[in-house]
Design brief:
Belongs to the peptidase S66 family. InterPro entries: Carboxypeptidase_A_C_sf, Class_I_gatase-like, LdcA_N, Peptidase_S66_N, Peptidase_S66C, S66_fam. This is LD-carboxypeptidase. There is one protein chain. By secondary structure, this protein is of the alpha/beta class. About 25% of the residues lie in helices and about 25% in strands. The protein has a 7-stranded mixed sheet.
């Protein structure tokens, strides 16, 4: 796995918007943090402030910003300003070959999962992490700090969470992969699909139905994607919707536990990844160790 060079003060980074639009003022906190606290040279995608219906500019505009950032050898990291939807529409048209010859950090989560999965398939590490638009929110200091630690090559302490009754104890070691479950599902059978065998899979999602989650987990099981994991890390499944006239009767975590009940690898619920609560930076494509015990779970690195 190619690990991009770690950042240092004075390096150039780019913030761009490959998915949904947003108020430009939402980036004020991120600009201050990156420029003044981290002492980086921050450039903006030419179409960062654009809007075209549900997207932050047309497909051509968003593609142009992302491709130029990938091509530019002076850029050391690319931050997706936010998720939403739109990155999947660009994936087939992007040329990632400059990223392979001159690796740089790609940062984001949610809709950006498709980009992280694709570059992992190409052998380049990336960061599943908080995005610039979220720097303005409350209680995200730890999320931001873990992102900084990974980008600047500092030691990252293990991530720990309390025990959950649905956990399966054990120790698993492997390369981290995954992200937003809906986007991960749409990598199957494509050039962005990652081989999960022997890997630590982490999943999270937002605003889906209980029935769709059940279908997704069954499809993953039927496709053999869940059988040979080194471990499963389950983050938050926020704003899940049930059928009001025909309630399912199980929540997201119960459905996930049911889908992997036949296997023996460790499973940890409540991990700090997702759209609410802690969303700590995870190095996609790099190794970790998941330890699940009776007192809680821990993810360590290296």
């Amino acid at each position: 796995m190619l690990i991009p060079p770690f950042l240092k003060p004075g390096d150039t980074v780019v913030i761009l918007a490959p998915a949904s639009p947003f108020p430009y003022d939402d980036l004020a906190n991120a600009f201050h943090t990156l420029r003044h606290d981290w002492q980086l040279l921050v450039r903006e995608g030419a179409h960062l402030q654009s809007s075209a219906g549900a997207f932050a500019g047309t497909d051509e505009q968003r593609l142009d910003d992302l491709q130029k950032a990938i091509n530019d050898p002076s850029v050391r990291a690319i931050f997706a300003a936010r998720g939403g939807y739109g990155s999947y529409r660009l994936i087939e048209q992007l040329d990632f070959s400059p990223l392979v010859t001159q690796p740089k950090w790609l940062v984001g989560f949610s809709d950006i999962t498709i980009l992280l999965s694709h570059v992992q398939r190409l052998g380049v590490a990336s960061l599943h992490a908080i995005m610039p638009r979220q720097f303005r929110l409350d209680a995200v200091a730890e999320d931001i700090e873990t992102l900084r630690q990974w980008l600047f090559g500092e030691t990252v302490s293990p991530y720990t969470v309390a025990a959950d009754k649905l956990n399966r104890v054990g120790i698993g070691q492997g390369v981290l992969t995954g992200g937003n479950l809906s986007l991960v599902m749409h990598t199957l059978g494509t050039s962005s699909e990652v081989d999960w065998a022997g890997k630590l899979l982490f999943i999270e999602d937002l605003d889906e139905t209980v029935f769709s989650l059940d279908r997704s987990m069954i499809q993953l099981r039927r496709a053999g994607k869940l059988a040979d994991l080194a471990g499963l890390l389950v983050g938050t499944f926020s704003d899940m919707r049930d059928n009001t006239t025909m309630p399912y009767g199980k929540n997201a975590n119960e459905l996930i536990a049911e889908a992997v009940a036949a296997y023996t690898y460790p499973v940890a619920f409540g991990m700090p990844v997702g759209h609410e609560g802690r969303n700590l930076a995870l190095p996609v494509g790099l190794p970790g160790t998941l330890t699940v015990g009776s007192e809680g779970s821990a993810l360590s690195f290296g």
